[in-house]
Amino acid sequence: MSQKSNSLSQLALQKFKKDFWGVFSFGFIVFVGLISIFAYVVAPDNSEYANQMHLSIHSKKPGFTIEILTISQKSEVEQSIFSQVFFGKKTQDTEIPISQYSIEGNMLTYTEYASDGLEGMSKSLNMSGVSESDLISNKTFLFGTDKYGRDLLSRTLVGARISFFIGFIAVFISLVIGIFMGSVAGYFGGRVDAIIMWFINVSWSIPTLLLVIAITLALGKGFWQVFIAVGLTMWVEVARVVRGQVMGVKEMQYVTAARALGFNDFRIITKHILPNIMAPVIVISAANFAAAILIESGLSFLGIGAQPPMASWGAMIKDHYNYIILGKPYLALIPGFCIMSLVMAFMLMGNALRDALDVKS
C-alpha cells in the first residue's frame, strides 16, 4: 500500500515538473520568500523598516544618484547580529544629501542638496579623526525615492515580508479551523452537520473584507492582528471542501474496515480519511495564499493594516496613488506590480498542483 502511495506521489511530482509555469511560479515564490526573510541583508537601506528619510530628495526618479554625508552619533545602540539581519539596524546616524563639499585641514564644508534649482545651506563640520570615505558616500536609488525621500527599492524588499508571511499564517489558521470543522461536519453528519453548516453559511454571507475590517478593529491595528483577522475569515472555503470530501470518503471500504477493527473516530478521521482528501485542500490553500495577499494589501490601503513606519506594499500604494496623475506613476506601480506578480505565481502554482494531483488525468 505504501509503495502504491509513493508511486502516486512520484507521478504527481513528475506531472508537476512538466508544467513550466507551475515550476517557474514555485521558483519565484521561493525567491520572494528568501528575499522577505533576508530583506535587510540585500536592501541598500538596512535601517529598521528601511525608514531612513531624506526629505530634500523626495520623489526622485529611478536611478537617481546623490552624495550622502553620514554623521555618526557617539553613542551606539547595542544590537545582536541576529536582530540586525532579521529586524534591521537600529541606527542613530544622520544622513544628509549634499550637492558639493570641500575639505580644508580638519574642516569639511558642504552644501546641502536642494531640489527645484534652489541653493542649499552651506555648513562646516569638524572631521578630526574621521576619514573622508567614512563621511561621504555616493548612493544610487535604483527604484528612486518615495515622497519622504526613502529608498523605494529597500521599502519594496522589506514590504515583501508582510505580503509573503501573511499568506503562511492566514492559511495555517484557516487550515486548522477549516479542516476541523469540515471533517467533524462531514463525518458525523446529522445535527452536528446542520449546526456547523449554519455557522459556515452565516460566515459565508458576510463580505470578506467587511468581516476582516470588523475583526481588525476588534483586535486593534497592528502586524499580528491583521494576520489573525485574515486567517479567521478564510476557513469557510476550506471547511466546505473538506466536508464534501469527507462525506464521499467515509463510505469507502477502508473506512468501513477501520470501524470494524474498532478504531475510534479520531484515528479514522486523522489517519485514514484526511490523508486521502488533502489534494483539493492543497490546491485551495494555494488560492487562499493569493487571496490573503490581496486582502492584506486592501487593508493596508485603507489604513488598518500594517502601521507606519512598517513597510507594506498596500501602504506604499496608498501613499503614492495620487502620483499616478502627477507624472510619477512608478511610485504606485512598482508595489502594485509586486502584488500582481506574487498573486499570479500562487494562482499558477495552484493550477499546476490541481492538474498534477488529478487522479483522473
UniProtKB/TrEMBL annotation:
GO cellular component: plasma membrane
Keyword line: Cell membrane, Membrane, Transmembrane, Transmembrane helix, Transport
PROSITE patterns: ABC_TM1 (PS50928)
CDD domains, per the entry: TM_PBP2
Gene3D superfamilies: MetI-like
Compartment annotation: Cell membrane
Pfam families: BPD_transp_1 (PF00528), OppC_N (PF12911)
Residue ranges crossing the lipid bilayer per the database entry: 20-43, 162-188, 195-217, 223-242, 273-295, 330-353
Topological category with respect to the lipid bilayer: Multi-pass membrane protein
UniProt record similarity statement: Belongs to the binding-protein-dependent transport system permease family.
Name of the featured protein: ABC transporter permease
Organism per entry: Bizionia argentinensis JUB59
Species lineage: Bacteria, Pseudomonadati, Bacteroidota, Flavobacteriia, Flavobacteriales
